[in-house]
Sequence to fold (57 residues):
Amino acid sequence: MMEKPTCIDCGYEFRHRTRLKRPSRCPHCRSEAITYPRFSIGEKGVKKKKRNSTLSS
Fold:
């Protein structure tokens, strides 16, 4: 999973970016203050099971 890079100055989010590197400039305001993309590893589409807290007698 990847959190997309975002322009710090105007808030533009690079949604359709295929490269994994940080963009050099924002296409809207031409600022170079852009966050780096963040990556995480996890199972996509899998929900955690809820634990049943009641005990059977």
